[in-house]
Design brief:
The complex is a heterodimer of chains A (about 100) and B (about 500). A two-stranded antiparallel sheet of chain A has the order 1-2. The mean pLDDT of chain A is about 90. Chain A has a domain of about 45 residues. Chain A is mostly helical. Chain A contains 4 helices and 2 strands. Chain A starts with a helix and ends in a 7-residue tail after the last strand. Chain B is α+β, with helices and mostly antiparallel strands. In chain B, about 40% of the residues lie in helices and about 15% in strands. Chain B is built from 17 helices and 13 strands. In chain B, α2 packs antiparallel against α3 and α7 crosses α8. Classes of the chains: A mainly alpha (about 100), B alpha+beta (about 500). At the A-B interface, α2 and α3 of A face α11, α12, α13, α14 and α15 of B.
């Protein structure tokens, strides 16, 4: 591991992942992630120079369906779990002043 | 300790000969589940279940039933159901009402099964102890100071407690097999792609696989037959030719018996399990049934846990990006901006373990680390898969411990995520390779159940189920229960 990799900026990660970390949890979380990364880093010992990545156990291209409408969505049904809707639209706080 | 007769097979016979009706069975199952003190269930659905039971009784009377018709069961609360909430053990989905049924739910409904409720689980299936559930930890069925395992801990405990003879589970790195071993029940993680993932809340899409948890391998064969099959709605669902599963649906499962060559992986980690005696006794039992054993090497097995936690966390961090507080799920109060809406909704909705995995996944997918961690892990995944392929050219199946030890005490590993992750040591390799593996009870250690694992090459469920059926024909560990409370015994 390089020095760069020994440093984990937990607040930067939280920013990327769109979660908030309160001060009380920050130190514990940073310590946990460091332990996990240390455990994970043991795999660096394995020689993989001649090995191709395996992305899925099926090891084949994902099956695609024909580009055709198969089901007509029921908007009311799909929106029944929405936290807030108005006139059939999902609402969010104003983003343009 | 007592022995249960509450198997699917026994119930199917009782239903078909009129000894009991599905409505009677269902009422008893719901009453028993209402009195549960182990926190196995997140929700019960009496009205829906009684309607299904009534319909099942009509089908049985009209001789239009399947082997599973009228039998009470429970779904892990990761499967979308129209009739009840689907929480995935999370505050994020506490009030989520799915607009459709998962394919697994639909298939078991079509087979006439009666769903009495949804079982507790680790939040978003992330955990090995069932302590990360927003709805509280599940307690071990044999000793309530211990964990039942996870993430399908509610399903395994509900079966062990005798509320239902069968429950669905999902297994990403051992979440069916590990709780099955801890609770003394039988669980199958099928080949990746055998059972549709449509309507199953995603954790790590290249690893997630649904499967059955029950009392016997025979019961697993019957339930697997009705759960499996191609589904055009899941692009990772495989087209398999499974004549034996079609025959089970029409004729039932009659396990064959032919001597098999079983591989025993050698290495330090296998010598360190706490229940060596039970494991060795089970091996001798299988040997006395005509199976032979050879030692084999799986050189990359020890790297499976790091590889798994890179891949699973990376996939989780992307899959869980969908929870944004806009379209469904938890939303914070009075968001000040869109950014504030995202951040606070996710922070309030996700628990500690989920956040830990999202951050781990975010780290390993970050610019500069992607090749070092994610691609590296995918390469070792291939080496692990290749190890299995080479081994299965010499043996029919492998026998491994399911877990390094028995169930551990509630709260004992909460502050040490790495030790918690090591619990998955023997289960993640089959998950990474996408091959079938089942756990069967093989005895007790310190008064708690322990399990052994049978692993086979892709699409070899029949082989490992037959070995397990043979073992369970000659042993009774799978029927051992802490006390007698099974529903069937009331009739």
């Amino acid at each position: 591991m390089t020095d760069k990799k020994n440093h984990i900026d937990i607040l930067h990660l939280a920013n990327l992942a769109k979660v908030e970390i309160d001060e009380a949890a920050e130190l514990k979380l940073e310590s946990d992630i460091k332990s996990i990364i240390k455990m994970i880093s043991k795999m660096m010992e394995v020689d993989t120079s001649d090995t191709l990545p395996l992305k899925s156990p099926l090891d084949s291209a994902q099956r695609l369906r024909p580009d055709q409408v198969s089901e007509k969505p029921n908007r009311d049904l799909l929106q029944r779990g929405a936290p807030e809707i108005k006139d059939g639209f999902f609402t969010v706080p104003r983003v343009i002043e | 300790m007592t022995q249960t007769q509450f198997t699917i097979k026994a119930l199917a016979e009782a239903l078909s000969n009129g000894k009991v009706s599905s409505v009677e069975l269902t009422k008893e199952a719901i009453n028993a589940a209402r009195g549960d003190t182990n926190n196995c269930f997140i929700s019960l659905s009496e009205e829906h279940a009684l309607q299904q039971a009534h319909d099942a009784d009509v089908q049985i009377r009209n001789k239009a039933s399947s082997f599973l018709t009228g039998i009470p069961m429970a779904h892990k609360d990761i499967f979308c159901t129209k009739h009840s909430t689907t929480t995935c053990g999370s505050k994020m989905l506490e009030n989520f009402a799915a607009p459709y049924d998962a394919t697994v739910v639909r298939k078991l409904d079509d087979a006439g099964m009666v769903c009495i409720g949804k079982t507790n689980m680790d939040e978003f299936a992330m955990g090995s102890s069932n302590e990360s559930s927003f709805f509280g930890a599940v307690h071990h069925p044999w000793d309530s100071d211990y964990v039942p395992g996870g993430s399908s801990g509610g399903s395994a405990a509900a079966v062990a407690k005798g509320y239902v003879p069968f429950a669905t589970g999902t297994d990403t790195g051992g979440s069916i097999r590990q709780p099955s071993a801890f609770c003394g029940v039988t669980g199958l993680k099928p080949t990746y792609g055998s059972i549709s993932r449509f309507g199953m809340v995603a954790f790590a899409s290249s690893l997630d696989q649904a499967g059955p948890i029950g009392l016997s391998a025979l019961d697993l064969a019957h339930s697997f037959a009705f759960m499996a099959g191609f589904d055009k709605r899941d692009s990772t669902c495989a087209k398999r030719r499974d004549d034996w599963l079609d025959r089970i649906k029409s004729e039932g499962f009659t396990p064959g018996h032919s001597p098999k060559k079983i591989g025993l992986p050698r290495g330090r980690i296998f010598n360190e399990i706490s229940y060596q005696n039970a494991f060795e006794t089970a091996r001798r039992q299988l040997e006395s049934s005509g199976h032979s054993f050879v030692e084999v090497d799986l050189p990359n097995l020890e790297h499976a846990v790091p590889v798994y936690y890179v891949l699973a966390s990376a996939e989780a961090s992307t899959n869980l990006a969908r929870y944004d507080g806009v379209r469904f799920g938890h939303r914070c109060n009075d968001p000040r901006s869109l950014e504030d809406l995202y951040r606070r909704s996710r922070s309030e909705g996700f628990g500690e373990e989920v956040k830990r995995r999202i951050l781990t996944g975010t780290y390993t997918l970050s610019v500069g680390y992607f090749d070092d961690y994610y691609v590296k892990a995918q390469k070792i995944r291939r080496k692990i898969s290749d190890d299995f392929t080479a081994t299965f050219s010499k043996v029919d199946a492998l026998m491994l411990p399911t877990t390094p030890d028995t169930a551990f005490k509630l709260g004992s590993l909460n502050d040490d995520p790495v030790s918690m992750y090591q619990q998955d040591l023997f289960t993640v390799p089959a998950s990474l390779a996408g091959i079938p593996a089942l756990s069967i009870p093989c005895g007790f250690h310190n008064d708690l159940p322990v399990g052994l694992q049978l692993i086979g090459p892709a699409n070899s469920e029949k082989t490992i189920l037959e070995i397990a059926c043979e073992y369970q024909k000659n042993t009774t560990w799978h029927l051992a229960r802490p006390h007698s409370n099974s529903v069937l015994e009331k009739f």
